[in-house]
Amino acid sequence: MTAEQPAALVTGATSGIGRATALQLVRNGWKVFAAGRRTDNLENLAAECQDLPGVLIPVAADVTDDASVTALYETVEAQGGVDTVLNIAGGAMGAEPIAEADLADWEWMIDTNVLGSLRVIKQFLPMLRAHGAGTILNLTSTAGVVAYEGGAGYNAAKFGQHAMTGALRLEEAEHNIRVIEVLPGLVKTDEFALNRMRGDASKAADVYAGVDKPLTAEDVADVCAYAVNLPHHINLDEIVMRPVKQAAQHKLIRDAQDSA
Ligand code: 8X3
Q1: Which end of the chain is more exposed for a tag (fewer CB within 10 A), N or C?
Q2: What is the pLDDT along the chain (260 residues), one digit of tens a residue?
Q3: Number of domains forming the structure of the chain
Q4: Does residue 165 lie within any of the structural domains?
Q5: Is the beta carbon of 186 within 6 A of some atom in ligand 1?
Q6: 214: Cβ below 6 Å to ligand 1?
């Protein structure tokens, strides 16, 4: 591993925060392995990175599939390895109260957010330990520290990922691996709410209705990139970031004429 060009794996890089974070790191001169399921999106992202200081290598991968994560590891290792892993893949499915919870939604959320991160972390920990100054960034959510009505399944998944991140920080400090957690609140992306509302564009739009300036994927990407670009001895353990209009999970001000 050369110390000259930092190298990262970014999961969930096909859209939203993962895509924006991969792009930002390439702008910062990083070598980025951009992993996700939709190869067309990854190829488009690679094309967008052509003239930037860093380099982006698209890798088709599904964090819910053991064999796919192993194949991802082999691809990354064969092309020089990484010192930083950003677990951005994740998402929400459904907004029903517990009384009407769909177990398949919960399974999907736990598999994607918690076990997806776990698969990647387990696979890459030996590489990061061997590097000697590794970094893991887990993108969780404010939903990982505050429960809310209609959020239980997502809360359960993000609370789980939050807990895992805390334990990982304690366990890996001896190996000089810093573990960063970024916990965003309301972020308006093309897909997050649309997926959660099962493709219902009107319900997805309602999530952000009247909110002046929800966070954007780029806002979160800037913070993720800032955290991993800091000198390695500085660990921003937990970064909670929200739009000003969301003072807390229960206090979302919707006073704008048009939804942002
Ligand atoms: C998304 C934040 O407020 O929708 O991770 O739970 S929220």
Answers
A1: C
A2: 345 799 999 999 999 999 999 999 999 999 999 999 999 999 999 999 999 999 999 999 999 999 999 999 999 999 999 999 999 999 999 999 999 999 999 999 999 999 999 999 999 999 999 999 999 999 999 999 999 999 999 999 999 999 999 999 999 999 999 999 999 999 999 999 999 999 999 999 999 999 999 999 999 999 999 999 999 999 999 999 999 999 999 999 999 976 44
A3: 1
A4: yes
A5: yes
A6: no
**pTM listed for this prediction:** 0.96
Ligand 1 atom with least separation from CA of 158: 5
Concerning whether 154 is annotated as a catalytic residue, the answer is: yes
Tokens of 250: 């229960």
User: Measured from the CA of 143, which atom of ligand 1 is nearest?
Assistant: 6
- Ligand 1, atom 4, lies closest to the CA of 186
Report if residue 1 sits inside a domain.
no
Test site for ligand 1: of 186, 211, 220, most ligand atoms within 8 A of the Cβ = 186
133 C-alpha to ligand 1 centroid (Å): 31
Does residue 185's CB lie within 6 angstroms of at least one atom of ligand 1? yes
CA of 156 to the centre of ligand 1 (A): 12
Atom 5 in ligand 1: which residue has the minimum CA distance? Answer: 141
Residue 214: CATH number of its domain? 3.40.50.720
